[in-house]
Amino acid sequence: PDGATTVVVNEVELNPAGADRGAEWVELYNAGSHAVDLTGWSVGATRGTSVKLSVPLEGTLQPGGYRRIQVGVEFLNDTAEGVELRAPDGSLVDRTPEAGFVDLLDDGRCWARVADAQPGWTFQPCTPAARSRPPARALRGSTGPPRSAWIGPTR
Fold first, then answer.
1. Distances in whole angstroms, Cα of residue 138 to Cα of each of 10, 38, 59
2. Which class for 128: exposed (0-12), middle (13-18), buried (19 or more C-beta within 10 A)?
3. What is the mean pLDDT of each run of 10 residues along the chain (155 residues)?
4. Sign of the CA dihedral 81, 86, 91, 97?
5. CA-CA distance, 1 to 3, in Å (whole number)?
């Protein structure tokens, strides 16, 4: 499908400050040079490889654009949670690490790619609809910053 190699799950807020219901979100990013029609695509909350909730998408994601997906219910668990992005034909476009994320801190930090659309994830201050700010040590060729949460490439 069009955009299947350029649209990624870019950032995930599992446990926002305060009540989670309706405040959790997933950010998509279009790393491509063309707009992508998201009609018929879906974002699913997963536990391992099973999808527990799927949210249908619509609209267009512009090149270099971000889309924040928020649902009016609590749809992401704070532990062992993953997110997958599927095309209208059901094919898997992108997913977070299968082991899932953990966020028990109830604050303004999210799981985000170390840089927009790049492999590797880090737990950092949320940057919705803005470029992910990579941790300095992760960019210096290390396998991740010591004593912090970092998950290697997923693609």
1. 17, 31, 34
2. middle
3. 80 87 90 95 83 88 94 82 93 89 88 89 86 50 35 42
4. negative
5. 6
